[in-house]
Amino acid sequence: MERRVVLKNDVRDGILTYCKIKHPSEGILVLKGKSKKGIITVDGLVIPPFSYSDQTFAGFPQSFLPLDFSYVGIAHSHPSGSAEPSVTDLHNFFGLVSIIVKSPYENEDIFAWDSQGKQLELIFESEEQEKS
Length: 132
Prior knowledge:
The chain has 3 helices and 9 strands, in the order βαβββββαβββα.
């Protein structure tokens, strides 16, 4: 089954704003939502406790995250302007999806990836409603 990711509009806006604030360092956020029948719906964000970042890396100690079964992945920025997941990104994969936002952090700069580095279809909430 082909997976796809649905981002709620306010979540998309929150990710983009956070990436712009953190620039030129990478920003990292935990994605909350649900997965059903191959559709990963992201409806919330968490700033991970004790996160760290610089211009080429962002991370956080997963052991400090409160237990929550609604975590579905992470979002982080790539200030370099590339949205491709790095080897480090793939080795530190968390959850079902990794959203990478490349600079300059606009709607067309958001991409979703699976743990194998395969790009997933990404749909914004308003687009999903039109398909229904």
